Each structure stands twice: as C-alpha cells, then as structure tokens.
Amino acid sequence: MATIQSKKLKILFWRIDYTGALVDAGISSTVRGLITELLKMNNEIYYFSGSRTKLPEKVKTYYIPFSRLFRNFPEVFSFPYQFKSTKEAKKLIKTILPINFIYQVIHDFNFSGAAVKKEFGLPLFLQADGVQVWVKKHWGKLYFKRLLKWAEEIQWLTADKIFTFSNQLKILLMNYGVPDSKIIINPCGFDPDFFHPHIDCSEVQQKLGLIGKYVIGFSGSFGYYHGISFLAKAIKIVSKAIPNVVFLFVGDGAYRAQLDEIIKQDNVEKHTIITGFLPFEEVPKYLACCDVLVSPCINNDDGTEFFNSPLKNFEYMGLRKPIVATAVGQQKEFFQHRWNAYLVEERNPLAIAEAIIELHKDPDLASLIANNAYLDGISKHTWKHRAENLLKTYYDLTENKI
Description:
Elements: H1 2-6, E1 10-15, H2 26-40, E2 44-49, E3 60-63, H3 74-96, E4 101-105, H4 112-120, E5 124-128, H5 132-139, H6 145-158, E6 161-164, H7 167-175, E7 183-185, H8 202-208, E8 214-221, H9 228-241, E9 245-252, H10 256-265, E10 272-274, H11 283-287, E11 292-295, H12 311-319, E12 323-326, H13 331-334, E13 342-344, H14 349-361, H15 363-380, H16 383-397
Parallel strand pairs: 1-2, 1-4, 2-3, 4-5, 5-6, 6-7, 8-9, 8-11, 9-10, 11-12, 12-13
Helix pairs in contact: 2-16, 3-4, 4-6, 9-10, 9-14, 12-15
C-alpha cells in the first residue's frame, strides 16, 4: 500500500441525505473515518453536503442547503433538492476538475450521482447502508414507492462499484437486483488515535460516580435493531449477582422511551446511567470507564438477517475491552465465542446477563477476550484498512494496478 499512499488523488465525497443536528453518529462517522485516512495518504478531498458535518480542516467543503421545511416533509422536498443539488454540484465540479472519483452515500430519492456521472464521465462509487425501499417499508413509512425504487435502481445501474458493510447486506442488495460483480464489502472500522487502551477516564469516573463500580457499557443510537431493550431487561438479573454493577448507555434515539420504561418498571434506576448524545470526541472516555462492552443487536422481524456493521464493535476492539455480542449477522463472522467476544443468543436478556456475570467471575477469560479483540481490530479493522480497500478498488477499476 506504500505505492497507493504516494499517489495523490482528488476525491469528491457527496452527501445528499439530511442529517440535521446529528453530526457524530452512523454515516457521519463512517464518512469522516474514510476521509481522515485518505487525507493521511496525501489525497485531496472535496465534500459537498446539505448539512454541516465535523471534518478535518484540510477538507474543501461546499454546502448546498436544504429547504427549512425538508425535515417536516422529506418525501415532498427530496426531489426538488435532488435537482438543486445536482445543478449546484455540476457548477462546482467544473471549477475543481480533474476529479479521480466520486463517493456518494445512497439516500432515498437520490439520482444525483448518476446525473453527474452521465455529464462528466467520472467514476462513481456508492455507499449502500441498506436498500431504501426495504428500509422505508420496515423502519419508516413508504411513500412514492415507484419513484423511490426508480431513483435507487438508476443509481445502482450507473455506479461503477457499490460499497456495502456486510455479506448480509450484499445478499439483500442482490435480492433487489444489484449485480454481484458491482458490490464491494467494506465494513465499518475505528480510528486507533481515538479508541485505544490508554485513555484516561478518571474525570468521567469521578463525574458519574463510577469509582468502585463494575461498569457495563453500550454505545450507539437507540434503534430497534440495536436490541437495547433486551440489554435493559438484563440489568435486573445482573444487579442481583453483582450489587455494584452500573449499566452505562452512551447515546440516545428512537427507543429511549422504551429503555426508560424498562428501567423504571424493573426498579434499576440506581444501576443505570444514560448519557444522551455526546460529541464524538467524548465517547472514548466514557467507554474507557467500562469493564465489559455489549452489542446486543437483533435480526430483522421480516426474517432477514441483521445486515449492519456496528461501529461500536470496532471501537470496542480498539479499547481492548471484553465484548459480549449477540450471534447475528456480521457479529457471528467477526467474533469467535470465548476468543475475541462472548457470543450469546439474540433477544435473550438472561443469556446477556449470564455472559456478563461469567466475565465478572472469570477475569482471565475477560482479559483473553479483550486482548484478542484488540489484536484483531488493530490488524484488520481500522479506517486505514477501509480506505486502502477503497483506493485499491479505484486502481483496479482504472487498470492502474499496483
């Protein structure tokens, strides 16, 4: 990869999705992770977006603002914004050519990348975090199905390569007609400068009253597929076996109310802390306070496998902490039971609780899992690995083999 890093490319990242105030989680973290590493490799990065995002200073950023009403009526305003963003992007691209390739995150009703590729002939790489028709149907509300499907299929047809996070998501994409030959699996990763075993968390421990506590951590947005309700139901069981336990939930989201209700119903408020959303830079200090970190994700209700690539898993690895994870999707591929994680059955609070209790009783096992997870993460799963995969795909595509 030394040859890759010695070549300077001009790369355009283009986000068409509405992020609002959420600038630290999910897609924002994946895009920032890739951009940060590509900059370290001496590449020039341009960034078009309708929302503001925390990015390194060297990124040349251009904002194409959404309508103020977009959040209230996204399906109505998506198409007008596509035309606006495409028109503005074409003007901007003319001022920064030549560009080696465009990297765009797929979003609902998005056809802009295809339109720009048609005019300029630039290689187009897409990041598919899901199939938008499926996502809207199962996790949201599906309006204008034919238009949504049309826009997504146009993007798939036009793209040179489609990057996705997992084998499970690749299968879902293929079920919706994306050719196998176009799909590149490039999971999430972590930045070892942020997530590492030597973080000083004493200030957070003091602030939250965690000194002398056995702390169980979770980080992320509280989405349905994250399975936090099953982790919440494990608190009562664990607290009976480990009286000084505290469950630290770092994040917030749609299922916060359900989490609060379970905690109240089980009378475990004194064993629980919920931080709410934190700036990305603060998250490592909170997770570093934990003795065990948990990823309780679940398969989808329609029978499809869990297809995400949770950022938390790789960040947990970087912190060198013992991990408890459900045996679903990518988690059962990357994790080996009692080697680099303690795998448990999904949707099973008792199984989660028993895993935590065993790790508490067996510090040697906890240490083994933590060390193996760290070695795995640092050797395979950093954002540098993901950025190198992206660049390799570009060079393979242009037949400029290294």
